[in-house]
Design a protein that fits this description.
The longest helix has 14 residues, at 141-154. The protein has 2 domains: 23-140 and 305-337, Alpha-Beta Complex (Quinone Oxidoreductase, Chain A, domain 1), CATH 3.90.180.10; 145-282, Rossmann fold (3-Layer(aba) Sandwich). It has 12 helices and 15 strands. The protein has 338 residues and is α/β, with parallel strands linked by helices. Helix 5 (141-154) crosses helix 6 and helix 5 packs across helix 11 (288-299). Helix 6 links the parallel strand 8 and strand 9. The two termini are 31 Å apart. The protein has helices spanning 34-42, 91-94, 121-124, 135-138, 141-154, 169-180, 193-200, 215-222, 238-245, 270-274, 288-299, 318-327, and strands at residues 23-31, 58-66, 78-81, 84-85, 105-106, 114-117, 126-128, 161-165, 185-190, 206-209, 228-233, 248-256, 279-282, 309-314, 333-337. It binds zinc ion (2 copies).
């Protein structure tokens, strides 16, 4: 069930007590994300988050208390963790699909002064942050992990033309990632000029305003009439899921990355899969391996996420931050500092 929201309040709650194997962290920075915005605006899948609760899931901070039985981490260590930990023993985990774990635990509560990392999460999805990496950069580990998972499954190859629908934070992280994977030409599509102007700074080869231009025609024109090798939908609307299918070349791949609400259906012409041999796939979340890779790419600045922070605000202004995000055309990510 979806919970009626927009009722976001600052409340005083107890600092969580730390049990064996658990770690208490003082949150230093937490970033806003499309998922948090969805929770704020319309609620979310109850399986993943039960409201009312503290929310926010992209964060980093400093260890203040370490539960019994742990040799690592140490008090004072700079870390990031979560937002998930697979059980490692269900059938999905045994097949290596850790992101689809039947018993996944999730960690919410980054928009707070303290966050407690559950015992299961400490060994599988918590990392120390190198000194030169800021807390807000480290907070990008979670969204980047999801994007790396998507790019890996879509198998972007050297020289590929990649079209990305959506110039929000997730679309932009895809853009940064596929450029590093060796995409030969990148095209980014959005309805909002301000977002496309922002995207321009990250060096796409082409931008298309879907409100003014015929996207299908334009992509064909930019690809010698064939369509893109890989198309990535990074919005999460049925209309753009369907549009993605029209932009791909024969034998190409469509990655439907943006999550639509459960029960959403789209139309798909079977000719595309049969005669066109198009691969259509979705990816959900990420595995612990992707989280590690993401932090390592952020730390080496192979993927420089710093330009994506467009504003910094204090924890006490969290409601204002989400109101700004709901209406703004220019904000990508707001870093919340506590
Ligand atoms: Zn996120
Ligand atoms: Zn599992």
């Amino acid at each position: 069930m979806l919970y009626g929201v927009k009722d976001l309040r600052i409340e005083n709650i107890e600092v969580p007590e730390v049990g064996a194997g658990e770690v208490l962290v003082r949150v230093k920075a937490a970033t806003t994300c499309g998922t948090d915005l969805k929770i704020f605006q319309r609620g979310y899948v109850e399986k993943v988050i039960k409201l009312p609760t503290v929310f926010g899931h992209e964060w980093a901070g400093e260890v203040v208390e370490v539960g019994g039985g742990l040799e690592w981490p140490k008090k004072g260590m700079r870390v990031r963790a979560g937002n998930s930990a697979p059980c490692l023993h269900c059938i999905m985990c045994q097949k290596g699909k850790y992101n689809l774990c039947e018993n996944m635990i999730w960690l919410w509560g980054a928009y707070a002064e303290y966050i407690k990392v559950p015992a299961r999460m400490v060994p599988v999805n918590m990392q120390e942050i190198p000194q030169h990496v800021s807390y807000e950069e480290a907070a990008f580990t979670e969204p980047l992990a999801c994007v790396l998972h998507g790019v890996e499954e879509a198998r972007v190859k050297l020289g590929d033309t990649v079209a990305i629908i959506g110039a929000g934070p997730i679309g932009l992280l895809h853009l940064l990632s596929v450029k590093k994977t060796g995409a030969g030409k990148t095209i980014i599509i959005d309805l909002v000029d301000e977002r496309l102007n922002f995207a321009e700074k990250l060096g796409p080869d082409e931008t298309i305003n879907a409100g003014r231009e015929n996207v299908v025609e334009k992509v064909r024109q930019l690809t010698g009439g064939y369509g893109a090798d890989v198309v990535i939908e990074a919005i999460g609307l049925p209309a753009t899921w369907e549009q993605a299918l029209k932009l791909v070349r024969k034998g190409g791949t469509v990655l439907e990355f943006g999550g639509c609400p459960p029960g959403t259906e789209i139309k798909l012409d079977t000719e595309l899969l049969h005669y066109g041999e198009v691969t259509v796939l979705g990816t959900f979340h990420a595995t612990p391996l992707h989280f590690r890779e993401a932090l390592s790419l952020i730390s080496s600045r192979t993927l420089d996420v710093r330009p994506l922070v467009t504003r910094r605000m204090r924890l006490e202004d969290i409601k204002e931050a989400f109101e700004i995000l709901s209406t703004s055309k220019t904000e990508i990510k707001i870093a919340i500092n506590s």
